[in-house]
Amino acid sequence: MRPAWMRHLRHRIGIRGEFLLALALLDVCQCVRLCWPSPDTAASPTSQFLSSLLPLPVWGAAWGVVGVLCLVQAFQCRDGWAFAAASSLKVSWALANGAAWAWGVPQAWWSVIIWLAFARVVHILAKVPDQPAVSSTSTGGAP
Known about the structure:
There is one protein chain. By secondary structure, the chain is an all-alpha fold. It is about 75% helix and about 0% strand. It is elongated, with a radius of gyration of 18 Å.
């Protein structure tokens, strides 16, 4: 059973807020990955190409800003900027990977597909009206 504060928080932020929290986690982790890349990450052909466009910490900062925006707006009723920024960043990342693929980076096409699909999911969920999560006590079901 979930603690009462978790149930209250989930009810307070709703489905859209929950999704924005997941985006915040993803985006902040991507920020850390790019700002402080491991030797393997920095040596990858895709990272080499992307760092020729902009230094990896600059890419990371963009992910971090969007992650923080998603975190903040997860708790607000007006969350459109977070959804727009998250979707736009993922499309931009897909386009940058598309450029890498066009310049001969092997397997960059896969990142294009993944990030465009994910951007579409963000865009779709941005159009869903928020509904408070249904509590387990009102349905009689398990948490």
